[in-house]
Design goal:
Mean pLDDT of chain A: 86
CATH superfamily of the largest domain in chain B: Periplasmic binding protein-like II
Shape of chain B: globular
Distance between the termini of chain B: 77 Å
Helix content of chain A: over 70%
Strand content of chain A: under 5%
Oligomer: heterotrimer
Number of strands of chain A: 0
Low-confidence stretches of chain A: none
Number of helices of chain A: 15
CATH topology of the largest domain in chain B: D-Maltodextrin-Binding Protein, domain 2
Low-confidence stretches of chain B: 20-31
Number of domains of chain A: 1
Largest sheet of chain A: none
CATH topology of chain A: MetI-like fold
Chains: A mainly alpha (305), B alpha/beta (449), C mainly alpha (280)
Radius of gyration of chain A: 25 Å
Number of strands of chain B: 14
Radius of gyration of chain B: 24 Å
Helix content of chain B: 40-55%
Chain lengths: 305, 449, 280
């Protein structure tokens, strides 16, 4: 046959021709900076741009800084709470719009609305929240509360509840992605499973628990991992809404790397913070890969048995 | 159809780099003339500063023509409105790639001087010494060398609303006498803070004392008024525990005990604060004199109208300091050390200090500040400004600080503690300990007292 | 048309009501905020949109430049990045999925690693690379960096789509005597369209809203984009522009997004975002 005649060399040349733009761009602007960042974390690079090797000084500073513990706590709380909320709400939305609402037009309508925050650019989305929660009398939420209770004192929401604000803001943005994935997964569950359950007289709640969730378990795992990794590394909304919050209350790890590097001009230190984060991300990814392979192996064993 | 789409996409992929060449301007020079292309960069609102430089270039051009020199200066303007730290970052990076603007605004002189990014101006300053107000160059001098130019001399003052005093029963003479009492040392800082509380208690205003909602230098004035020290004469950063403790206690008490400052002041934003000060809902405020035009316009007043209701005074003497003071903080501009035309740039600054001092007066009058150039201070534009007239006497009490290494970090950490203290989320002792830890970690060369 | 039983219809109606209550806050928030754009000092007006046509004075002290340049730069940037991203990831995804070559496994695993990498933390190092290549402080540089950051993700998605296409389709084109390249064309035309759409949409969104790359990699004001244009007027502590003006800018900013979104909506909703099943 034709392609057996192609030599290995010829195949390689062809493949790398296809891959060349990808490889060039990624090596130059992704891999090279990554290596550079690791090197940078061992220097005291600052605003004067002198590359001076300082060994583990930056890492030592991270451990010595009393704020580090707070930042770590914030990061973990933020990720766990937001991720759980996203999962639960995504499931809720998906079940509602795919299982209970059979009409396509209604389902599309709701999904479109939920996608709205996702497609709003961050600079606008953050202003939206800041305006909504404006601390003065004229702030929207404050006015709303005052409408119901005339003696209500305007509350400074972003200052008093910064953590809640960033969690909610992030959840609202992230809902659409998972909801759509879960939706299409639910839609591909074979109908006979539902019919069988109905015949058995199962309640709606039992159907959700024993049919829908088990069927979309791989998707749930995927979204959990995807969102967790995203939350670890995406700091834009926090930067724009609270900028680390009153006195580091919403400062998360990734944001502190940005602050140290670009606001304090301590680039070496910022690089060290980034490197630690990257290590954690890599470890989590490996864990997930391992868990998936493990499950795949078990499934294969079950098949072969 | 699909082929078309593919073709269109390919075209876009290829032409983007070409289109994206966008930003580099070329100036076509007419045959015999030498065109000197200079770039001036600025940040935020006071564009009268770079405009003064650009207009001075116009006058210099005319002079060159008369003298028969075939030089024409042409300026490209790059005015931004971004965070000052980001702006300074941009300047530093631009130097790194040799694309620095020839003139730029300065927010932290000490780091720029350390990095060698400013052109030395000692020769022209010495040659024109008499043209300048004394001490106008202290924050931008290092080892006797001068590195930047002061286009103005704004002082940081305390504002208060005269009408509030009338409401609580003061007579017109008493109201008129207050600034003089502060000047003579009769009325102290502690008495002023007590007055703020009295005004609120007696219904003269809703809020006693407000300040800027960001990490500025204004807080250093209060620290100084309470006898705190933050630098020595040589410009080394000093961490004065006693002074800071007093300052933190003061901050905490104002928001949580006497309640003359709202707890969430720092989350309110400039607009809300300006409106409160302008309308008289807030009795007193401390900050730079040029903030008054923002305050005035936030309530729809012009400077003259605002001057009728608001008084500007110095920081009074206190139990810990021996006389009233104001700190003068010019908004320096510098010449890049990488400029290709150092002599012409320097000539421009000389022109501003001499024949074109009226341009500086235009700027100073716009921001309600005195000028750093003596001739400008007698310019009719400044003389006509009601607010400047009132505060001209403060010049004798004005202090300028030396350039302090690490002051930016100090101010940033100080503000973080102020925010938390006012919200009641930390105690003065804790604030002191936290700030000390951060300064220790992040700033070298600090003297601890 | 589905015929629902009585109880199913009842449940659907309840679900619809519940969902309406659920999305109401979001709808409300957006409508009221963007409604601000049409009011100034309490009257209905279009004055807040003045920045579209010429310089606009915000208050005594600040005049802002018209939006034209920022809009133009945003469009060029976004179209350039999106088209290039689709093309390059198509080529790369095809190669990784379909072709056998040495190093294939390495690159595939590498793809996974890169996809999850926190790219924004590499910015200062990226600056150095750009400086070395003499394209720092240019729009071209930002385009290349934006591309590089997104390619692993897009390539992964497209590769998954390619993986899902049976070999027979391609083999049949080969037997018919086409070269490898026209085989490639046939395949993409018929079967990978949903993947292309989904990459294009996310690429567009990301490029259109990107501001951190512009903030850090460009040092002056000569190539503003919509994101930096708006950001310059809205800071955490100080809103330089009143909310009504920002809302007006937001509307102008989001119109292309909404248009693009409506065009591709159907494809997106079918859940062809890719990567849902068979993640690795």
């Amino acid at each position: 046959m034709r392609f057996q005649e192609e030599s290995v060399k010829g195949k390689n040349v062809q493949a790398y021709a296809f891959l060349s733009p990808f490889l060039i761009l990624v090596s130059l602007f992704y891999i090279a900076p990554a290596i550079l960042t690791i090197v940078m974390s061992f220097t005291g690079l600052d605003g004067s741009f002198i590359w001076e090797f300082v060994g583990f000084e930056n890492y030592r500073k991270i451990f010595l800084d009393p704020n580090t513990l707070q930042i770590l706590k914030n990061t973990i709380m933020y990720i766990v709470v937001t991720m759980l909320l996203i999962l639960v709400l995504d499931l809720f939305i998906a079940v509602m719009t795919t299982y209970f609402i059979k009409s396509d037009s209604w389902a599309s309508f709701f999904k479109t609305i939920i996608m709205l925050p996702m497609i709003t650019p961050s600079v606008i989305y953050s202003v939206l929240w800041i305006w909504y929660l404006d601390a003065s009398d004229a702030g929207f939420i404050n006015t709303l509360f005052r409408f119901f209770n005339h003696s209500f004192q305007p509350v400074n929401w972003i200052a008093k509840y910064p953590f809640q604000v960033i969690v909610i803001a992030q959840v609202v943005v992230a809902l659409a992605y998972g909801a759509i994935i879960f939706s299409s997964a639910i839609r591909s569950i074979p109908d006979n499973q539902f019919k069988a359950a109905h015949v058995d007289g199962a309640s709606e709640w039992e159907i959700v628990k024993s049919i829908i969730i088990p069927n979309i378990r791989p998707h749930i795992k995927f979204i959990a991992m995807w969102e967790t990794l995203g939350l670890m590394t995406n700091y834009i909304n926090i930067l724009l809404i609270t900028n680390g919050g009153p006195l580091n209350r919403t400062e998360v790890w990734a944001l502190s790397a940005y602050h140290k590097a670009f606001i304090d001009q301590q680039y070496g230190y910022g690089a060290a913070i980034s490197v630690l984060l990257i290590l954690v991300v890599l470890m989590l990814m490996l864990l997930f890969q391992f868990a998936t392979k493990h499950r795949q192996m078990k499934e294969k064993e079950a098949e072969n048995a | 159809m699909k082929k078309m789409l593919l073709a269109v996409m390919l075209v876009f992929t290829l032409i983007t780099p070409v289109f994206a060449q966008g930003g580099k301007e070329e100036v076509a020079a007419p045959a015999k003339e030498q065109v000197v292309s200079l770039k001036i960069s600025h940040n935020m609102d006071f564009t009268t500063i770079p405009d003064a430089v650009v207009d001075a270039a116009g006058r210099l051009n005319e002079r060159y023509k008369k003298e028969g020199k075939n030089i024409r200066i042409e300026f490209t303007k790059d005015y931004q409105t971004i965070d000052w730290t980001e702006y300074q970052n941009n300047i530093v990076f631009a130097h790194k790639i040799n694309e620095a603007p020839d003139f730029y605004a300065i927010s932290d002189p000490s780091s720029l001087m350390k990095a060698g990014l400013l052109l030395e101006l000692t020769d022209i300053v010495k040659a024109n010494q008499s043209k300048f107000v004394p001490n106008a160059f202290a924050p931008v001098s290092q080892d006797g060398k001068i590195y930047a130019f002061p286009p103005d001399l704004p002082v940081r003052v305390i504002y208060y609303d005269r009408r509030a005093l009338k409401t609580i029963g003061w007579s017109d003479e008493q109201i008129k006498a207050l600034p003089k009492k502060i000047q003579s040392g009769e009325f102290t800082f502690e008495q002023f803070i007590a007055l703020c509380k009295e005004v609120v208690d007696k219904g003269g205003a809703k809020i006693g004392l407000e300040h800027r909602p960001g990490k500025g230098a204004d807080f250093l004035d209060v620290l100084r008024a309470l006898g705190g020290v933050y630098s020595d004469e040589k410009g080394t950063l000093v961490f004065d525990e006693t002074g800071l403790k007093r300052f933190f206690q003061f901050t905490y008490d104002n928001a949580n005990v006497t309640k003359i400052t709202p707890q969430n002041l720092n989350q309110m934003g400039w607009t809300t604060i300006n409106k409160a000060v302008g309308s008289g809902d807030a009795f007193a405020y401390y900050g730079p004199i040029y903030s008054c035009s923002y305050v005035a316009s936030s309530v729809g007043l012009d400077n003259t109208q605002f001057a009728q209701q608001e008084e500007f005074v110095m920081f009074p003497k206190s139990a810990y300091s021996d006389k009233p003071f104001v700190v003068a903080a010019p908004q320096y501009i510098g010449i890049s050390s990488q400029t290709k035309y150092p002599q012409i740039c320097k000539d421009l600054l000389v022109e501003l200090a001499n024949g074109s001092a009226d341009l500086l007066a235009r700027h100073a009058a716009k921001i309600n500040s005195l000028s750093s150039v003596v001739a400008a201070n007698s310019d009719p534009q400044i003389k006509a400004n009601p607010i400047i007239k009132d505060v001209a006497y403060m010049a004798q009490y004005a202090i300028t600080e030396p350039s302090i290494d690490g002051i930016a970090t100090y101010r940033s950490e100080l503000f973080k503690q102020i925010v938390a203290l006012e919200l009641g989320q930390t105690s003065p002792e804790q604030a002191l300990a936290d700030m000390k830890a951060q300064i220790k970690l992040n700033v070298k060369n600090v003297i601890y007292k | 048309m589905l015929d629902l039983t009585h109880s199913e219809k009842k449940k659907q109606n309840i679900a619809i009501v519940v969902m309406i209550l659920f999305v109401l806050p979001i709808v409300f928030m957006f409508i009221v905020f963007f409604g601000l754009a049409f009011f100034k000092d309490g009257h209905f007006t279009m004055k807040n949109f003045a920045f579209v046509l010429g310089p606009m004075q915000l208050r005594d002290q600040t005049t802002i430049k018209p939006i034209g340049l920022a809009l133009r730069n945003s469009i060029i940037f976004t179209l350039g990045v999106t088209c290039s991203e689709v093309l390059i990831s198509l080529l790369a995804g095809f190669a990784l999925s379909r072709l056998h070559f040495t190093g294939r496994k390495t690159i595939q695993t590498g793809l996974l690693v890169l996809r999850m990498f926190p790219t924004l933390l590499l910015l200062i190092a990226v600056l150095y690379v750009l400086i070395t290549l003499h394209i720092v402080n240019t729009l071209k540089g930002v385009v290349l960096v934006a591309l590089a950051f997104r390619l692993p993700g897009s390539t992964f998605i497209i590769k998954n789509f390619f993986d899902g296409i049976p070999r027979d389709v391609e083999n049949s084109t080969l037997v018919d005597g086409c070269t490898r390249f026209s085989g490639f064309r046939q395949v993409i035309i018929y079967l990978v369209k949903p993947g292309i759409v989904s990459i294009a949409v996310f690429s567009f969104l990301s490029a259109w809203s990107n501001f951190i790359l512009f903030n850090t990699l460009l040092f002056g004001n000569k190539t503003p984009v919509m994101a930096t244009y708006i950001r310059a007027l809205t800071r955490n502590e100080q809103m330089i522009a009143p909310y009504s003006v920002v809302a007006a800018m937001g509307i102008v900013y989001m119109i292309p997004v909404i248009v693009f979104f409506i065009i591709t909506q159907k494809q997106l909703m079918e859940g062809n975002i890719g990567g849902g099943k068979g993640v690795s």
